[in-house]
Specification:
heterodimer; A: about 325 residues; alpha/beta; Rossmann fold; 2 domains; six-stranded parallel beta sheet; four-stranded parallel beta sheet; 12 strands; elongated; B: about 325 residues; mainly alpha; ABC transporter involved in vitamin B12 uptake, BtuC; two-stranded antiparallel ribbon; about 75% helix
């Protein structure tokens, strides 16, 4: 009998602990409720995205119900379905597994709830709109910067290289495509376009190979920052500067990249703006609720692009 | 005292679950909404179904650490079968793949003489590895166009207000209870878990027990994969990472002895829901996911500590009692 008491007291204690963080119940009236199911709140990127979504919704006087998928497709389906059960008027979702969007969209359609996807992917489902960073535009910004920096370096070579993410990352591939189009329009030749599979160690190896085969390469664009910083390290290890000899540009404004830019170990990167992406989903959600037509950047996939910014040594202090 | 102890073995976790449910109107308003309850029943099913098989494994004195790998592989193969041959092919593929995984484990243990812990740790990586290989060009999915297929409905359909995955889970628990309590092989499994050498003297074969237990785990994984995949519609090698620990935690929390020889399916059943209800309560209170993990870990530790205290202070006779089935 004693043990039963011990266990009950222990459990009650734990529950009492969890009960301490009480928050007031919002008044239930006809105001619009939006459910936001987020990929994983442990990541800064998604914390900013959630903040941007909540701020934009609050500005409209909407209530936001936040759900953390915790990087788990089972939790994603369960939690997002629960939001629909709770009667949200609009669902915004940043899906951990885009391919698991099917059952969620099916449920939302049945309940007549519009769905706006934020980033990652749409999984081939009939969502209302998907917000993604302007990846091609980011590649273009990288090319513009690289051209200017190569001219400032006084380099005679018109040869540059491009390191891509894994072939299955279709959105990321647009970065390299946008870069290539713009840099070629500026009279350069992409002498090497190789995949580093998004990984730092492969980015390092690929850059070593590029330097061995094309010693005169004047710039390199990498699809993400781990590879960008690794490529810059390979350039440094070859006795060259990743800023003044081989202009190295990454993508994503990861903390390691910002540190590298401050230390002249990387020339530039491209920053996404998750808070603005969150705000954009709220705007699009309102249009979907009011049955207004959405202005798509790519109508075939119902994509809306969010602008990106270039980060170099001149503005790195203001980022992050 | 002895009676109280025996009752606690079987019904203790159930009592805690009821206590927690009684508290929910105060600590988690909205928890008792029909839709929320349905959601809890639906999402707990796949853990519960495999926990039935795992109860047998642990009662026989062995762990099966490979259930996460089995679930990932079975889910991937099931989706491939569905996309190739429809609902019937998918169901057949799920059961066959799960069962085969279990028999591979049994083979490693009985033929190659690898201890279960090591054999299933190894096969966990192998099964997951194969699942990764099969999904190298992207996760396998249930395409949105198949939304009306009977298979796609398994995970979302309700019968008389009860989610189908939960009904499947109840059926598996019922069958498991009969197996454990009313059949010779169930009794032998417990006897074997209590003392393998004594069981051998009584003519119980190692091979029979291992094949039965690990085959049963595989079979439950196959059934669980059906309820899992029709809810989530996608699978790849990373699906349900850490699944084995969720299942083992539920079985142990339920009161099945880690040493073997004692297994309680009633306890397992309640423990599955104790964990999911507690999780739901924490989520609804906005507790961060890091703290959720800590709380669940603490509950597990407290429960086992209490169990340890009870065994230490229990009256003489507890040794005999521990060797009897308690559900």
């Amino acid at each position: 009998m004693r043990t039963k008491k011990i266990a009950s007291v222990a459990l009650l204690g734990i529950l009492a602990l969890s009960a301490c963080s009480d928050s007031g119940e919002p008044a239930a009236d006809q105001k619009i409720t939006v459910g936001f199911s987020v990929y994983d709140m442990q990541y800064e990127f998604f914390q900013k995205m959630a903040k941007g979504t909540q701020d934009a919704a609050a500005a409209k006087g909407w209530e936001v119900k936040l759900h953390d998928e915790k990087s788990d497709e089972n939790e994603m389906v369960t939690g997002a379905s629960a939001l629909i059960d709770q009667g949200v008027d609009l669902l915004i979702i940043s899906p951990f597994k885009p391919t698991a969007l099917g059952p969620i969209i099916a449920k939302a359609k049945a309940e007549n709830v519009p769905v706006i996807v934020n980033d990652i992917g749409g999984g081939g489902t009939p969502y209302d709109a998907i917000v993604i960073s302007d990846n091609a535009g980011g590649g273009k910004l990288a090319a513009e910067f690289m051209d200017k920096q190569i001219q400032a370096n006084g380099s005679a070579s018109k040869n540059v290289a491009s390191i891509t993410c894994e072939p299955s990352a279709t959105y990321a591939a647009r970065r390299n495509a946008g870069f290539k189009e713009e840099i070629e329009a500026r009279g350069y030749t992409v002498v090497a376009e190789l995949s580093g599979n998004s990984k730092a160690e492969e980015g390092y190896k690929v850059m070593k190979d590029i330097l061995a085969k094309n010693p005169d390469v004047a710039g390199v664009f990498s699809c993400n920052d781990p590879m960008g910083v690794a490529a810059a390290n390979a350039i440094k290890d070859a006795g060259k500067s990743p800023v003044t000899d081989v202009v190295s540009v990454g993508f994503n404004a990861d903390p390691e990249a910002l540190t590298a830019i401050k230390g002249d170990l990387l020339a530039a990167t491209v920053a996404q703006d998750p808070a603005a992406m969150g705000g954009l989903t709220v705007t699009l959600g309102e249009q979907a609720l009011n049955k207004q037509p959405i202005q798509f950047s790519n109508a075939a996939e119902r994509e809306v692009f969010n602008p990106v910014t270039l980060v170099d040594k001149t503005n790195v202090a203001s980022i992050g | 005292m002895i009676n109280a102890g025996r009752i606690w073995d079987t019904w203790g976790v159930t009592a805690l679950l009821l206590l927690l449910l009684l508290c929910t109107p105060v600590i988690a308003p909205g928890f008792l909404d029909i839709e929320n309850l349905q959601s809890v029943l639906r999402e707990s099913a796949y853990v519960g179904i495999v926990a039935v098989g795992m109860t047998f494994a642990i009662a026989s004195g062995a762990f099966d650490l490979s259930v996460g790998g089995q679930l990932a592989l079975t889910s991937v193969v099931t989706l491939m079968a569905f996309n190739g041959g429809g609902t019937a092919a998918a169901v057949a593929a799920a059961i066959t793949t799960g069962l085969l995984c279990g028999l591979v484990n049994a083979g490693l243990i009985t033929q190659l003489r690898v201890p279960p812990f090591v054999a299933t740790l190894g096969s966990l990586f192998v099964f997951r590895g194969i699942a990764y290989l099969l999904t190298q060009d992207g996760p396998k999915t249930l395409p949105y166009e198949q939304i009306e297929a009977p298979f796609a409905k398994i995970g979302s359909l309700d019968v008389a207000g009860l989610p189908v995955p939960f009904l499947i889970m109840v059926a598996v628990f019922g069958a498991g209870w009969v197996l454990l309590r009313r059949t010779a092989i169930g009794r032998r499994t417990l006897a074997y878990g209590s003392s393998p050498s004594a069981a051998r003297f009584c003519g119980i074969s190692d091979t029979t027990i291992r094949v039965f237990v690990f085959g049963l785990v595989g079979l439950t994984v196959g059934i669980a994969a059906l309820t899992y995949i029709t809810r989530v519609w996608t699978a790849d090698g990373s699906a349900q990472d850490g699944f084995e620990l969720k299942v083992i935690a539920a079985v142990v929390l339920g009161g099945t002895a880690l040493k073997g020889g004692k297994g309680t399916l009633i306890g397992t059943f309640s423990a599955v829901f104790l964990v999911s209800v507690l999780n739901e309560v924490l989520v609804s209170r906005g507790v961060e996911s890091a703290y959720q993990r800590i709380v669940l870990g603490c509950v597990l530790i407290v429960a086992l500590t209490v169990d340890g205290l009870r065994t230490r202070f229990a009256a003489p006779g507890s040794f005999r009692r521990a060797s009897r089935p308690t559900s």
